[in-house]
Give the backbone structure.
Amino acid sequence: MFDFLIGILFFLSSFSFSEFIEIENCDDDDSFSIVCGFQNPEDLYLSPSKNKIIISEFGSLAPITKYGEISFYDLVSESKKSPNFLYEENTWGDPKCDRKSQKLSPHGMDLIQRYDGKFMLAVVNHLPNESVEFYELIESDTIELIWRGCIDAPKNKYFNDVALKTDGSFYITHMYDFNASQWSIAYASITKNPTGEIYFWNLDDGFTAVPNTTGSFPNGIDLDKSEENLYINYWFSGKTVKFNLKSLSTEYEHVGGGKDNLLVTDSGLWVAAHDYSGLESLQCDYSIIQCPLPFTIYHLALEDLDVLGTYSFSNGQMGAATVALPNKNKIWLGSFHGDRIASFKLK
């Protein structure tokens, strides 16, 4: 029955919404510099030297078993490379979590310098089981990732993005339950009904839900440097919120587009938003190499989410951007469905 309903929705969406131009080559255009050779580069982070971009190449959610990888793009040599992986004892995660396979399907990431000076990369992972993976990142001419532990997700929870604290604990977005029907998720994309919330994890207490964070498809998340405020994106409702962790309340809110990932930087908050509905996203099926749907990058003030700048794109060589990563005079972009990363210059 579900396949029949989705088929109807897809059929209706092809008539109800404007047709898009499929992206078929890897050429630069007037807006973007393009780098191809990736699989769904969903999340991006600058390395400590700021000479490399760490990339989460998404595979799939269970029960589909399409694996991805963690890679990096060297900004000096302008080439894609693979990190060197080492696997050590689980000293940063839950001792009960045991990684039996090196395969994974990475999603959201966070990279911080811990209280002990080590660089910690946390990766939301969907395969072969739902987990959060911890790596120590060591940078030289290349990137070395030393596996330092993992945490199994609570039963029935799908995670999306993670925000680390310097002590190794973290906040994480639960986008929806594993047993939620695809029909109910499609319906929530229209009605903006709540589907998930934010969880906090530490070694002593495990996962606990953060009060007053329930919303319609929680997505990107990040902490400010004081670790007193969370910035949270809700994809279906199009909200970015500044959430005070002391009062456990939302202080400021920005609405616009389907909010995906966000990044806290010295220059402000950078937010990627999709300018299309959940139904329109059905047009980007597996026959499409690079989803071309329109998007906007918002530059928001950390204090009150005032808009500092907007950058909107459509019908270009990059579509459906999920993340906006500033570096020097450029913004780097990833996508949940595509073969490329891209950059555009700030004026």
Helices lie at 2-16, 182-191. Residues 13 and 280 are 6 Å apart (CA to CA). The chain has a mean pLDDT of 92.
